[in-house]
Amino acid sequence: MENKYNKIVNKQEDDNVLNKEEDDNVLNKEEDDNVLNKEKLFIEVNNLKNTLNEKDKLIKNYYDQLMRLKAEFENYRKRVEKEKQDYLDFGKEIILVKQIKIIDILEQALNSAKVCNDINSIIVGIEMMKTEFLKTLKDEGIEEIYCEKFDHNLCEVIDYVENNEEEDGKIIKIYQKGYKMNGKLIRPVKVKVVKNCDKKL
Fold this sequence. Notes:
Blueprint: H1 2-115, H2 119-139, E1 142-144, E2 155-162, E3 171-176, E4 179-181, E5 184-187, E6 189-195
């Protein structure tokens, strides 16, 4: 009986030892898991910090590039504006130098008119001035428009005369000459035209 009792006691003690060992194992496993989790968390935090640092560097790099591009564009814009103004000034200078020649001819014509009563010399001076001025206009691509018949693309009708014997649209008087610049109309010819009674202009 006693033997049986001892066996039971020993079994309980063994069970207790086993249970304690199991509990210890569970606790150890939990502690190990906690340590592993902390290590993983620490690694993740470090990885996130490194990623953030890399992103910060990228952002700073992009911002620096953007500022450089902005400065370069501003310099380019100023340079283009200055070049544009230089071209305009240069173009004005060329045209104005040509106008000075016309003033020279005008002054010569006036001086001639003062010392001489010959109307022909005055006419010659004015003709020279007109020729020089037309040459200046031609050099700039401006040309006079010549029309014998009304063209709605080139002419502006100021007046008309009804006449069935003349060709409809025939120009019979030019009130003001018209001009083109490099093929583009800059001023229409102002004209008086023939209008046949049975046609609309």
